[in-house]
Amino acid sequence: MEEVVFPLIDVMILNESEAEFITSIRLEDDLSNVRQAASQIIALGVKEVIITLGEKGSLYMNHQEEAVFTSAYPVQVVDTTGAGDTFIGSFIVARQQGMTVKDALQRASAASAIAVSRAGAQESIPNVKEIANFLERCST
């Protein structure tokens, strides 16, 4: 069944544990394996993959094995509930708006940084203006 499903996936966004489950490659203790895991997922037929790494950032890879690493923004973590959903939603919206992969990843990282600095799930998700303000403060 996997052979049929993976080639149908345009963008797969998963966390370290999920990537480890699919690839059997240990990521938590050795970030050098993240690129190998992403490459293995691409080899399954997925067109683009993003592995989120929490406070360590994220790695994007496409089917040409072009990779982009994005650092996480350092924030005081209050609650990680909803961080992954916030990252995914922000990335997809940014791409649909025509942003480059790099810019979309930065926006997604900023959105999830804001979300983890607040309590709760839905109520912690920032709006577009909050993300823009956060990115502006981080660039100065």
Radius of gyration: 15 Å
Indicate the mean pLDDT: 92
Count of DSSP H/I helices: 6
Order of helices and strands: HEHHEEEHHH
Largest sheet: 4 strands, mixed
Which properties best describe this structure?
140 residues, alpha+beta, 6 helices
Structure description:
Helix content is 46%, strand content 14%. It contains six helices and four strands, in the order H-E-H-H-E-E-E-H-H-H. A four-stranded mixed beta sheet has the order 1-2-3-4, sandwiched between helices. A hairpin with a 4-residue loop joins strand 3 and strand 4 (67-70). Helix 2 crosses helix 3 (34-43) and helix 4 (83-96) runs antiparallel to helix 5 (101-116). The longest helix is centred in the C-terminal third of the chain and has 16 residues, at 101-116.
In short, what is this structure?
The chain is α+β, with helices and mostly antiparallel strands and 140 residues long. It has six helices and four strands.
Note the topology.
Elements: H1 2-5, E1 11-15, H2 16-23, H3 34-43, E2 48-52, E3 58-62, E4 67-70, H4 83-96, H5 101-116, H6 128-139
Parallel strand pairs: 1-2
Antiparallel strand pairs: 2-3, 3-4
